[in-house]
């Protein structure tokens, strides 16, 4: 039994910290050889960790186990979900935050975090080419950010109907969004109590972009059904395929119908920093609100999300609760330094330190370098797929998300066969090789899906991954033929 004095002892911390930093540095330097996703059965893993709890391991042994068993996003073979490998300095920032344990709810509790948060929002507003009236805050993830932005939209658009105090009453609000949008928009609408009718999915075109020419008709239809549209949401980009809606057309429609224009840029807003692809986000500057995750394409640990409002003051209208011991919500003063007035959270991790440390120590260029690098890798993967027999792309990638499938030309396959085959190929790849990729279903067809988030992945890794897929596909088809 250790004493609390030992637990808080600075010298013990020093020794433990040095060991751990060494362990992490070793971990990072061996990441290039790592199996990206060591597979575990949940129950087996649960038992293993029960044993660890019972076994009184040393901290070094325990962390070693943890490192070994986890998903390795720093492996160049990691090409799975939209989670980036955090730049190591951001992990050190987290360690600092772990000790300081400030909260940005009110200035007194987290002055440093609040100041950095404001500067991070200002800096990225400028980098993204947003208006100089832009203001905002940071929050825990894209899901919460989208909900908070829509709550702000409701308060800003309908200040007279006091929804906050009286509920939705007679009004039946709705939003319009690409049917391919992330499910958290649907969730936000349901949380706000607007039900199934509160979300109108606009059909997507063959590249999974919103068919903006259908917006007018959808709005008219909604109105005749007694709904009151609040907002149109542009996806920049969609989750499955990384497709960017035409934000200029969405902005035009929002203006024409007097609606709020929100952009879910959780994944793709950083693409604005890529000189060769920034046109995909033309119109972004017209958004009333925008969200962007820093843990998908901006090298930060999860969760780190920015919420931007073209008119920064709009964010102050969202919440009206009294919390006399903390904040005054009765004031019209923009007390930007009390972040809790605008955020869903009360206590909130000082996540701005992660972004700020990158900005302060390396400069804004590293963000551009990163985005260009991963987008270029995705283009290289698409190129290789296009020239490799028996593979086909679902669509040319706009950013670092690539959807494709194995489709042997030698034999006839039904659509079900192909779905089954691709799901089996992925399962085998993940189980039997060092690579980690995921899959998605696009219009009923199973596709393999890679998100290139690791800037240290190289063409050789892409080639090796495709070779493994090809060999697995061939073997599975041969097996099927012998069994038939
Ligand atoms: C377009 C989009 N929006 C929102 C989210 C949700 O973000 P988070 O996981 O940070 O809550 C995602 C996650 O993949 C996404 O791709």
Question: Can you characterise this structure?
Answer:
This protein has 484 residues and is of the alpha/beta class. It has three domains: 1-27 and 38-71, no CATH class; 102-363, Aspartate Aminotransferase, domain 2; 366-483, Aspartate Aminotransferase, domain 1 (Alpha-Beta Complex). It contains 16 helices and eleven strands. The strands form two sheets. It has a seven-stranded mixed sheet with strand order 1-7-6-5-4-2-3, sandwiched between helices. A four-stranded antiparallel sheet has the order 8-9-11-10. It is globular, with a radius of gyration of 24 Å. Pyridoxal-5'-phosphate is lined by residues 82, 141-143, 182, 184, 239, 264, 266-267, 293, 303, 305.
The proportion of residues forming helix, as a percent range, comes to 40-55%
Provide the residue-averaged pLDDT. Answer: 94
Strand elements, count: 11
Number of helices: 16
Spatial strand arrangement across the major sheet:
1-7-6-5-4-2-3
Q: Using the coordinates shown, work out and report the CATH topology of the largest domain.
A: Aspartate Aminotransferase, domain 2
Task: Provide the β-strand percentage band.
Answer: 5-15%
H/E topology pattern: HHHHHHEHHEHEHEHEEHEHHEEHEEH
List all distinct small molecules, including ions and cofactors, that are bound in this structure: pyridoxal-5'-phosphate
Outline the biggest β-sheet. 7 strands, mixed
Estimate the global geometry from the Cα principal axes: globular
CATH architecture of the largest domain: 3-Layer(aba) Sandwich
CATH secondary-structure class of the largest domain: Alpha Beta
- CATH evolutionary superfamily of the largest domain: Type I PLP-dependent aspartate aminotransferase-like (Major domain)
The low-confidence runs, each spanning 5 or more residues with pLDDT under 50, are none
